[in-house]
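Hi all, posting the design record for the shared folder.

TITLE: backbone redesign
STEP: 1 of 1
STRUCTURE INPUT:
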C-alpha cells in the first residue's frame, strides 16, 4: 500500500471518533470494541462479503455505492430476524488497482448508510490484496430475548407476503450491462441496483404485531430461493400467485423495451433486500393497518400449505413447481 496502513485507517474512520456512550464504552482505536446489551435482549450478528467481479463490477457501481450496499446487505439480514442493527465492523482488502481516494469514497458510502440507520462503525481490519478489492462487513444488533423471527416459522394456512417490489436490482444491472447508453433514461433502475433499502422498520413491526411469529427472510438471492429456504426450514409447501408479486412500473416498462421477463428478475434476480415472510391469516388486517400507519407496505402474494416441502407458482388455473436456482442467469 502506498500510504501506511495506520494513516489510512485513521483517515477512513475519523468519523467514528467520539462516538462512545449509549452502550458503547470502547470504539475504534483499541484492540477491540466493547459494548453493552440491554437486559432482556440478545445479540443478533451477521457478516457479508462483497468481492470485486463476484459481487460487483467497477463498471456498474461507484465506490460509494459499494460501501453503501455492503452495509445495507448486512442491515437487511438483521432486519430479517426482526432485530435492531447497532454496530458494524469493516474489513477491507485493498487492491493496488484502487486509489486511496476511491477507498475513501467506499467509506463515504459505508458511513452514509450507517448514519441513515443509526449504526456505529466500531472496528475492522485493513489488509492488502493483490487483485480484486474485498469488503467484508459484520453487523451486530439486538433483539428481544427469544423473539428473533426465523425462517422456520411458517405454518399451513399462513399468508405469504413481501414488503415491496422485486426485480428492480436485476433490472438495473441488466440495464447497465446491456444498455449502458440508456442509463440516464432509467435513473430509478440504477438506484434500485445501487442503493437498496433495508427493511428494518418492517422487521420490527412484524416482530411486535403478530399473534404468533411467522417466518421471515430477506430477498438477497431472489424470491424463489428465499421461498425455498422458508419451505425447507419450516417443513411446508408455499404457493405464490405470480400476478400478485409486486414489480415496479419502471421495471415492467424497461423489461418490455428490452425484451426481458420482469417476473424472472423478481424470482431469480436477487439483491432487492425486501423482506419475504409469512403471518397468521387472522393478523393480516391489523398488520396492513400498522404498516400503513408507519409508511410501510405489505403485499400478500400467496399462502402456506400442508404437505411436502415445495414452492409452487399458482395463478388460479395453472400450478407449476418453482425451481430453486437460477440467479446465476444474471452472471453475478
Ligand atoms: P490490531 O493490530 O490491534 O488489530 P489495528 O491497527 O488493525 O489493530 O486496528 C486499530 C483500530 O482500528 C481497531 O480499533 C480496529 O478495529 C480499527 N480498524 C482497523 N481497520 C479498520 C477498518 N478498515 N475499518 C474500521 N476500523 C478499522
Ligand atoms: Mg487488526
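Okay, here is what came back for every position:
SEQUENCE:
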Amino acid at each position: 500500500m502506498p500510504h501506511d496502513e495506520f494513516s489510512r485507517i485513521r483517515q477512513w474512520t475519523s468519523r467514528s471518533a467520539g462516538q462512545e456512550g449509549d452502550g458503547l464504552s470502547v470504539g475504534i482505536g483499541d484492540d477491540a470494541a466493547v459494548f453493552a446489551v440491554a437486559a432482556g435482549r440478545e445479540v443478533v450478528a451477521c457478516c457479508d462479503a462483497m468481492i470485486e467481479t463476484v459481487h460487483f463490477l467497477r463498471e456498474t457501481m461507484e465506490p460509494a455505492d459499494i460501501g453503501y450496499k455492503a452495509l445495507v446487505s448486512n442491515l437487511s439480514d438483521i432486519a430479517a430476524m426482526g432485530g435492531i442493527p447497532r454496530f458494524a465492523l469493516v474489513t477491507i482488502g485493498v487492491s493496488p488497482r484502487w486509489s486511496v481516494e476511491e477507498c475513501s469514497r467506499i467509506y463515504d458510502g459505508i458511513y452514509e448508510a450507517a448514519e441513515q440507520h443509526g449504526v456505529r462503525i466500531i472496528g475492522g481490519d485493513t489488509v492488502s490484496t493483490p487483485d480484486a478489492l474485498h469488503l467484508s462487513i459484520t453487523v451486530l444488533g439486538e433483539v428481544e430475548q427469544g423473539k428473533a423471527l426465523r425462517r422456520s416459522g411458517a405454518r399451513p394456512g399462513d399468508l405469504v407476503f413481501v414488503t415491496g417490489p422485486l426485480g428492480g436490482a436485476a433490472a438495473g444491472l441488466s440495464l447497465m450491462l446491456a444498455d449502458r447508453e440508456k442509463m440516464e433514461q432509467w435513473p430509478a433502475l440504477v438506484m434500485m441496483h445501487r442503493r437498496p433499502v433495508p427493511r428494518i422498520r418492517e422487521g420490527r413491526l412484524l416482530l411486535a404485531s403478530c399473534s404468533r411469529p411467522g417466518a421471515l427472510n430477506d430477498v438477497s438471492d431472489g424470491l424463489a430461493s428465499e421461498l425455498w429456504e422458508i419451505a425447507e426450514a419450516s417443513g411446508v409447501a408455499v404457493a405464490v400467485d405470480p400476478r400478485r408479486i409486486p414489480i415496479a412500473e419502471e421495471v415492467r416498462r424497461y423489461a418490455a423495451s428490452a425484451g426481458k421477463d420482469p417476473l424472472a428478475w423478481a424470482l431469480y434476480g436477487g439483491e432487492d433486500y425486501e423482506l419475504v415472510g409469512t403471518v397468521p391469516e387472522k393478523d393480516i388486517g391489523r398488520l396492513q393497518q400498522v404498516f400503513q400507519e408507519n409508511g410501510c407496505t405489505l403485499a400478500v402474494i400467496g399462502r402456506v400449505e400442508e404437505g411436502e416441502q415445495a414452492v409452487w407458482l399458482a395463478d388460479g388455473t395453472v400450478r407449476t413447481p418453482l425451481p430453486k436456482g437460477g440467479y446465476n442467469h444474471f452472471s453475478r
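COMMENT: The longest strand covers residues 41-51.
Let me know if anyone wants the other runs.
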